[in-house]
Each structure stands twice: as C-alpha cells, then as structure tokens.
Amino acid sequence: MKKLLILVCSMMPLGAFAADTFNCIYSKAAVNNGKMGPMIGREAAKVEVDNGAMKVYRPNGTYLLSPQMKDDLKTVWRVSDASKSYVMSQDFKSFAVSDTIAKSTEQWAECSLEKSHSATSIESTNPKQWEKRIITQAERTFVEQAVRDRLKDPDSAKFKHSYYVSNGKGAYCGLVNSKNSYGGYVGDSPFMAMITHDKKGRPTGAGIIALGGSDTDAQATIMTCRDNGYF
Q1: Strands 158-160 and 203-211: what pairing?
Q2: 8 and 81 share a domain?
Q3: Cβ-count burial of 200 within 10 angstroms (0-12 exposed, 13-18 middle, 19+ buried)?
Q4: How far apart are CA 12 and CA 141, in angstroms?
Q5: 0.85 exceeded by pTM
Q6: What pLDDT does 15 receive?
C-alpha cells in the first residue's frame, strides 16, 4: 500500500483499494445488556483489505468477510449486514466486528502492513511519542458541557477524565456515565471531543465528534480514540 493512498484515501472510492494483508492482535468481548465486557485474549491474526471490504481471520482459521464499506465517519469506515456491523479504521491499524446475535465484539488491533506486500511503509505518528498533560479546568468545563448537551439526563452525568494528548488535532477522549429514560445508569460510554484554542493556547470551546451509544458506536469511538493516543 503506497504512501499516496494513505494521504488521499478519504477522497477515493473504496473500490480503489488494492489487496493488502495486515498482521494484528485478536481479542474478543461479550456483550450483555448492551454493555461490552473486557477484551479477552491477545493472539496473532491476519486481516485482508481488498476493494473496500475486510476479510478478518480468527486465530482458529475461520474468517468473516464484510460487504464493501459505506459509512465514512472521518476516522473509520463502517458497514452493516443483517446481524453484524463491521468497522475499519482509516489508518488500517484496527478492525472490529460486532454481532447482535452472538452478542459479541471481536477486535483486530495493533495492525501493521506485511512488509512483503509493499516496499514502501505507511507513514504514521506513534501515539506513544505524543506529549501528554493534565487537562485544564477550562477545557474540562467546555468538554463536559458539550457532552451534557447530547445526553438524555445531563444533570446525572458522571465523568472520568483522561490526560490531554498533544496530537495536533485538538481531539480529547474520556468516559461518561449517565441515566437513561428509565432513570438507571447505563455504564461508562466513551466520547471524543474536539477542543478549540485561540492563538495563545487558551480554550475557546468544545464540540462532540463521537459519543458511544450502541455497541458498534462505542467500539468505533474507542478505536478512533486509540488512534489519537487515548485509552
């Protein structure tokens, strides 16, 4: 996969992808009552991307083949069929499949392109090298207000904040737990916000990019956050 593809992939039709194979780490989580449990297992597994579709292999040799990706969510692509939802990050570092019948989410993470498939490596920034700092009170206030504006019961919101990653994008991720329409807490949901700053580095506001709702949305948000240095 050429460097040029990474730079312009968001503008190209998915059918323009060439076939590539990625080496990944496979794990799986059960989903109970709409909440995803911990990811279990860290085994080597492969993923093939061809013509905008992903073919994900489990460690036991079985595989799943997605339809061609349709929904462009800026940092991930997504497509669904009758029972499954497939998510592919646009940097090809992570893939996921959520199954509503099996009540599970499978993930292929920490993916890297097989060197034999390309003499040119994918240029990327290692999130571990980004600087991290404590989020300021002003930034926290803007983020919490933006998240509350998206909740059914904003006054019930309980936040778990993270460090702020200086990734050059202004992206910030955390967790929020709030009550649903029945008055019960739904559990921690991941969110991604975009914090804006003025020329002097002072925060001026925040907007929500993603907020985990369904299992698929939550998984997509977590994948995007990880690509930006969080979780």
Answers
A1: unpaired
A2: yes
A3: exposed
A4: 38
A5: no
A6: 37
